[in-house]
Amino acid sequence: MKIRFCFLFLLGAIRFLIAQSIDFTHLHVSLELDTNKSAVYGKVQLAFKADTTTDSIYLNGVNMEFEKVTVNNAEVKYASDNKGIWLWPEELLDSNSISIKYTAHPRRGMFFIGWNDETGLSRRQVWTQGQGIDNRHWVPHFDEQTDKLITEIEVLFDSKYEVISNGSLVSKEEEGDQIRWHYKMAKPHSSYLMMLAIGKYALRKTVSKSGVSLWQYYYPDREEDYKWYYYKNEEIFNFLEKEIGVPYPWENYKQVPVQDFQHGAMENTTATIFGDFFLVDEVAFNDRNYTYVNAHELAHQWFGNLVTATGSDEHWLHEGFATYYQWLSEKHLYGQDFFDWERYKAAQMVFEASKIDTVPLGSGKAGSARFYQKGAWVLYMLSESLGKEKFDKVIKYYLEQNAFGLVTTDSLNSAIQQVAGTDYSYFFQKWVYSSGEPAAKVTSKVKEDGVMVFNHTSDSYLNMFFDMKLAIEGQEPSKNELWLITDSASTEFTSMPGQNHRCKYWIVNPNMHVLADITENKPIEYLQIQYEESLALLDRYYAVRNAEQHSLEEKETFLIEVTKNESEFFSVRAEALKQLVEANYPKSDELLLLALQSKDVQLQKEAIKLVKNPEGKLMKAVAELRKGDSYELRESAINTSIAGADPKENAWLNDEFWMENPGVPDNKIAVVVLLYRTAIFQDKEALQDLIDYTSSGYDFLTRINAMQALGALQYFDDEVAANYFDALFSLNRTLSRNARQNLNANYSTESGKEVIDKYVESQMNVWDDFQKRLVNRTFGLNLE
């Protein structure tokens, strides 16, 4: 009884009406997958409650074919378009059920990886990504994050593969050469958090201190590196559960790597999916490892999954909390300096975002730098304001009062009022609902009469007190308040009693406790004392960074001392070294050599960026770092070591070490070496290896690296074109975008256009409508 016609839906009104009259409580979907056709054959059953006035039901379901639709076991009239399906039941009960048999060919939400790879090199996987509203592409349902329900997923699949989904594994039954897997959640969650992952995995099971089952999936061929990509896994779980103060709210926790994931990771309830580019080894661990993502996604199990924001304007409550507790986890693992440096880097990202636009944090258009970094900063400042003890009680109350429900910023403020007895509306108005961050350049000095004068300029709002740390000789440093206001360029502050005391140093916004972009200009001797006397990393860092305003003659001794301080955090030493090199300090090479030969790989990575045309001992140090303890370091060392186009001087490129250690996760070292072998030695085998790396047999990062290398070589032929078009059609947007850029670059040349036109003509009758539309948009063609 299907009715086919088109609707002009008023989506806002529809969502409002459905939310008011229907409550979906349970979703059970049974799936069979055709991996060669990227097709889903499913049957979904939805339980719901509705009031007596409900006469129609709308479900999201993108580009689906519906075969049989029933409500309460009776066939009903229905109509569908490419976005969803309307149902008109004749009668509804207090408790009701919908059953739909359907077929889908998802281009979003569910991804089929490697099944059509002719090289046989790619992993074969199926995985899903539901956030924000993409699960509607493979299962029809009411796809709104505000609607929470219990979900269960059944999948019939080839017995050679593992199938992972949300919740507990209810059953696993053999059916010929296939297995039917059945997973079920025990408690309700938002449907965008449903997940499915299928692949060839090994599994290691552990248990948290509180008894939660932890399942870590990994590739069997990467077992030797398990300790690096799942570094401190159980410790992270135990720490966060204790730090958050509310027991982990779900039945178990699983983590699954997948190929060609378009984000870092996704916090699906009980089952995080993460990009397999985080499957690092001992060397890659020093570049970017999984520990921070591990902590971030785990924190989401409370913040986002247990308590869920009502909409995009409140998204910071998901990402801000997850990032903040990620920071705390990193502090636990790596120490206070690491934590403070993460805050500093996050602040710079926020300041950069504010140069582009002035969208407030409490807007759905705020962007990642604000949702994540500024959100975490807001929570850090809130913790500093309330004090850790009260803050922890507030968070516990916030989670327990809103468990399995919805939250807004007002929910957090309400928790503060209930626990701390204080209304923080002013705080959220300033940091969440208002745009921008305080910024000022402050020039300060001490006059002979003991009065400190602060002259400041600002392009943004100030009008606020800043903590000021003030150290007087013979006294302990004290905390003072400095009032900086936009409409006043000068502020006087009495710094000491009488004439017999001298000011040792002062710091506005010590240890950067407030998210404010404050640059201080003060005499170099006070900067040096600030550095020597400060325990806080950011006070030491700013003492060095603000020395940039002084001449080499003034700061030389100070910065050399910092550069040689082996106990100092790498970023402070790197800043001092950078200033000396850029100021043409005559003995810069000696300091660069000292940094390159240090045992601090992060300092080595920063120092090698400053090396230009190395010779002698410096060249020898660079050469040794070609096999250093970081792939980023190795890449920089290889690039810095290239001695023109002389084959003899570059014979080291033929060392088999590079192909045996190609770089994890993206074969970047192999790609760089192959690029130079092709350019310097005209090595045809190296060129073919680069071409192979652009094929569907490799992950998207490797393919992009190889595309860039071929672009640098200006090489393009029929085989490369075929690989680029395959990448163009990829559902991985990053890969597709890079392929489009490379194809366009080659299309702008006469020879490249000839190759592309020839390929298009040979394939135009093979491509489907989606592929033709994409080709038309890329090249301005009109294929039909």
TrEMBL record:
<feature type="domain" description="Aminopeptidase N-like N-terminal">
    <location>
        <begin position="27"/>
        <end position="193"/>
    </location>
</feature>
<dbReference type="InterPro" id="IPR045357">
    <property type="entry name" value="Aminopeptidase_N-like_N"/>
</dbReference>
<keyword id="KW-0479">Metal-binding</keyword>
<keyword id="KW-0482">Metalloprotease</keyword>
<dbReference type="InterPro" id="IPR042097">
    <property type="entry name" value="Aminopeptidase_N-like_N_sf"/>
</dbReference>
<dbReference type="GO" id="GO:0006508">
    <property type="term" value="P:proteolysis"/>
</dbReference>
<dbReference type="GO" id="GO:0016020">
    <property type="term" value="C:membrane"/>
</dbReference>
<comment type="similarity">
    <text>Belongs to the peptidase M1 family.</text>
</comment>
<dbReference type="Pfam" id="PF17900">
    <property type="entry name" value="Peptidase_M1_N"/>
</dbReference>
<dbReference type="GO" id="GO:0005615">
    <property type="term" value="C:extracellular space"/>
</dbReference>
<dbReference type="InterPro" id="IPR050344">
    <property type="entry name" value="Peptidase_M1_aminopeptidases"/>
</dbReference>
<keyword id="KW-0645">Protease</keyword>
<dbReference type="GO" id="GO:0070006">
    <property type="term" value="F:metalloaminopeptidase activity"/>
</dbReference>
<dbReference type="GO" id="GO:0005737">
    <property type="term" value="C:cytoplasm"/>
</dbReference>
<dbReference type="Pfam" id="PF01433">
    <property type="entry name" value="Peptidase_M1"/>
</dbReference>
<dbReference type="GO" id="GO:0042277">
    <property type="term" value="F:peptide binding"/>
</dbReference>
<dbReference type="GO" id="GO:0016285">
    <property type="term" value="F:alanyl aminopeptidase activity"/>
</dbReference>
<feature type="domain" description="Peptidase M1 membrane alanine aminopeptidase">
    <location>
        <begin position="232"/>
        <end position="431"/>
    </location>
</feature>
<dbReference type="GO" id="GO:0043171">
    <property type="term" value="P:peptide catabolic process"/>
</dbReference>
<keyword id="KW-0732">Signal</keyword>
<dbReference type="GO" id="GO:0008270">
    <property type="term" value="F:zinc ion binding"/>
</dbReference>
<keyword id="KW-0862">Zinc</keyword>
<feature type="signal peptide">
    <location>
        <begin position="1"/>
        <end position="19"/>
    </location>
</feature>
<dbReference type="InterPro" id="IPR027268">
    <property type="entry name" value="Peptidase_M4/M1_CTD_sf"/>
</dbReference>
<dbReference type="InterPro" id="IPR016024">
    <property type="entry name" value="ARM-type_fold"/>
</dbReference>
<keyword id="KW-0031">Aminopeptidase</keyword>
<dbReference type="InterPro" id="IPR014782">
    <property type="entry name" value="Peptidase_M1_dom"/>
</dbReference>
<dbReference type="InterPro" id="IPR001930">
    <property type="entry name" value="Peptidase_M1"/>
</dbReference>
<protein>
    <recommendedName>
        <fullName>Aminopeptidase N</fullName>
        <ecNumber>3.4.11.2</ecNumber>
    </recommendedName>
</protein>
<keyword id="KW-0378">Hydrolase</keyword>
